Structure formats: structure tokens, C-alpha cells
Amino acid sequence: MSEGEHISKHTNTMNQKDIVLQIKDLHKSFGDNRVLNGFNMTLHKGENLVIMGKSGSGKSVMIKCLVGLMEADKGSISVMGKDITTLNQETLDILRADIGFLFQGSALYDSMTVRENLEFPLRRHSEKFDGNVDTNSLVIKALENVGLAEAIDLMPSELSGGMKRRVALARTLILQPKIILYDEPTSGLDPITAKEIIILMQEIQKKYGTSSLIITHDVDCARVISDRMILLIDGINYAEGAYAQLSISKDPKIKAFFKH
Ligand SMILES: Nc1ncnc2c1ncn2[C@@H]1O[C@H](COP(=O)(O)OP(=O)(O)OP(=O)(O)O)[C@@H](O)[C@H]1O
């Protein structure tokens, strides 16, 4: 048995009842290119789970399967105990409102003010608030949560990279998601701004008890934020464990991630 498998078995004994997101035996190929080859993942309530994998290892493919943008060849994905591959569109939309997604590069609407960017998801998911929504106070509260209340009437072009990332996070938070998927939350930011974003992610997790799935290449981000990590290698969850445990591994495939 490889060391990776050993670590995997160890973490499988964690509490089963707090599972908010689970991927089982996920397979996805493109022709002969077997990208995911039996990937498993479990996210627990309130947990910060970091997934690391080399470029091209299949992290985006996994996320796309998870949010329904891509169909897996085999495997199951369940959110809050519901298998998303078997749900109808309406139920899926309701479930989606519980999942926040922070895209790489923020993805704000450039032609809208910060306020309008934040109002957008509220309109799309008005069912979540039973039509009873005080848009203005939700927008202000979400911006206060990321320390940017004063930016409410600015355009995205007037914001720095770090501010854009914060606004994008506020836009994710406004729907009060139970799970947040972060795709490379610190990419393209200088080290100080990256650290600010990591601190903000930690504060949000503490305040709302959100469960977070964080895809990152940034070893420092992983060290600070992760309760647990999964290394996606050869299409599987090759190794799982705490940063402290994985970073001293002697397995060359695992060691390669922690070289500075
Ligand atoms: N739609 C597609 N059609 C064919 N091949 C694809 C498609 N999407 C992804 N792939 C292939 O799947 C593999 C994994 O790609 P993916 O984008 O998931 O990597 P990644 O781990 O997210 O990389 P990065 O860190 O560079 O973003 C790559 O070999 C890629 O070429």
C-alpha cells in the first residue's frame, strides 16, 4: 500500500453524519485521456478542505462535474445528502442556492456597479427569501462583511484586484450559502493581498460556520486555511490529511507539492 492510500484510510474514520458534500468514485475521460479515475471526496460541516493538484490534473473538471457544467462518466455526487445526478431542475436550482462559488479572477459584471453586482444573485434566487427581501440592507451587510461598505457605488474598473476579490466574495455570501467553492482564491494577487483574502475567508468561516472547498496551487494558502487537504494525483484522491501530516511525507509525489 502506498503512503497516500494509508493516509486516505485514516481520514475515512471521520464523523459521517456531518457530511455536506460527497463525491464517490468519479470518472471522467476525454477520449484516451483519463482525467478522473475514481476520485473520492467528503466535505464535512464547517470544514475547510483544500484540494491541490498539478496543472492539468483535473481540478476544474471535478468542479465542473460538481456544479453540473459537465457530466461525469461514472460516480455519484451528493450535496446535503441528495444525489445531484438524479434531481430535477427545480430541486437542483434550490440546492444550488446553498452553494456559493468564487470564480478564478472574480468575474464581476463590468457594466454594473458594485451594488448592482450584489443585487443580481438576490434577484435570481428570490425564492430563497420568500419574496421578502430587503435588498439594500442585505447588500450593505454583505459589503460590510468584507470591509468594503464604502465601495457600494463604484464600478469594477475602479477597484483594485484585492477589492474585486472581496466584492466577489460578498456577492457569494449574500445568498448565505452553506458551502462555498473557492477556485484559486489567491491567484493573481500579491502576497499581502492574498493574505488578507485568506484572513477574510477564515473570518467568514468562523462567523457563518460555512463549509469550504478550496482549490489552490498556493501552498501558503493551504497551510493557513486548511483543516484537511486532498492531493489529486493520477485522477484519484491520492493522499488526504492535515497539512502538517502531508508536508512531511516521504512519498516523492506528495513531497513535490511542498517544495518551495
Ligand atoms: N472539454 C474538454 N475536452 C477535452 N479535454 C478536456 C476538457 N476539459 C478538460 N480537459 C482535459 O482534462 C485535463 C484536466 O484539465 P483541468 O482543466 O481539469 O485541469 P486543472 O487541474 O484544473 O488545471 P489548472 O490548474 O491548470 O487549471 C486536461 O488534460 C485537459 O486538457
From TrEMBL:
Protein species of origin: Winogradskyella wandonensis
Organismal lineage: Bacteria, Pseudomonadati, Bacteroidota, Flavobacteriia, Flavobacteriales
Name the record gives this protein: Phospholipid/cholesterol/gamma-HCH transport system ATP-binding protein
Domain ABC transporter: 21-259
Single Gene Ontology MF annotation: ATP hydrolysis activity
Record field: transmembrane: none
Keyword Glycoprotein among UniProt keywords: no
InterPro entries: AAA+_ATPase, ABC_transporter-like_ATP-bd, ABC_transporter-like_CS, P-loop_NTPase
Transport in keyword set: yes
Source organism superkingdom: Bacteria
Signal sequence coordinates: none
Keywords for this protein: ATP-binding, Nucleotide-binding, Transport
Any one Pfam family match given in the protein's UniProt record, by short name: ABC_tran
